[in-house]
Amino acid sequence: MSGASTPKPASLPDGAVPAVTHSWFDNLQGLVFGVVMVSFGISLLKALGLITGQAAGIAFLISYETGLDFSLVFLVVNLPFYILAFMRLSLGFTLRSLACVIAISALTGVAPQLFRYEHVEPFSGAIVAGFCIGIGLIGLFRHGASGGGVGILAYYVQERTGFRAGWLQFALDAVLFATAAFLLDGRAVLVSMVGAAALNLFVAFNHRRDWYIAR
């Protein structure tokens, strides 16, 4: 009848969002996008001498303090979290996340040969990097993977409890930046915190199970 509203499917409760089934190509292109965006954001932060949160932030601190290659440190720092992924999530999620972290490590390693940042205002660069990493992480989350490290823990907690991944990452990053304050220049830490805030707020507000569910 004209003017009649379309009824909801009987199988879906109020407020529920129907799951989206992805093809292998859907997932592949989403993961590639996520890897590229995260890698670009990390390379920008590295060029500015800044850090971010999560496992990448830990890798940045170790790399700056020891002189070790960031790409290698980032890969090693992420390895323990795959125990959680394998035990509590799924083998597919674990393997996809591992592949993404290896790809991110490789891309950030070659980024200086691909991009040159002649002039970037630090606060603007940190915010842009935060948004790039944030949207990249959402791309990985929505296609059954993560950027490793704390992202795996945040994904697990959100899937099991509904507590948003971005808020958990925010809390853990606070501990990381408190540590960084003793190791890095104060202004670099402040600028890095602005970028991390942009990243985590973006993820917290845009990665929600009631907006988008993929299987």
Automatic annotation (TrEMBL):
<feature type="transmembrane region" description="Helical">
    <location>
        <begin position="98"/>
        <end position="117"/>
    </location>
</feature>
<feature type="transmembrane region" description="Helical">
    <location>
        <begin position="188"/>
        <end position="205"/>
    </location>
</feature>
<dbReference type="InterPro" id="IPR003740">
    <property type="entry name" value="YitT"/>
</dbReference>
<feature type="transmembrane region" description="Helical">
    <location>
        <begin position="162"/>
        <end position="182"/>
    </location>
</feature>
<feature type="transmembrane region" description="Helical">
    <location>
        <begin position="70"/>
        <end position="91"/>
    </location>
</feature>
<feature type="transmembrane region" description="Helical">
    <location>
        <begin position="31"/>
        <end position="64"/>
    </location>
</feature>
<keyword id="KW-1003">Cell membrane</keyword>
<dbReference type="GO" id="GO:0005886">
    <property type="term" value="C:plasma membrane"/>
</dbReference>
<keyword id="KW-1133">Transmembrane helix</keyword>
<dbReference type="Pfam" id="PF02588">
    <property type="entry name" value="YitT_membrane"/>
</dbReference>
<keyword id="KW-0472">Membrane</keyword>
<protein>
    <submittedName>
        <fullName>YitT family protein</fullName>
    </submittedName>
</protein>
<feature type="transmembrane region" description="Helical">
    <location>
        <begin position="123"/>
        <end position="141"/>
    </location>
</feature>
<keyword id="KW-0812">Transmembrane</keyword>
<dbReference type="InterPro" id="IPR051461">
    <property type="entry name" value="UPF0750_membrane"/>
</dbReference>
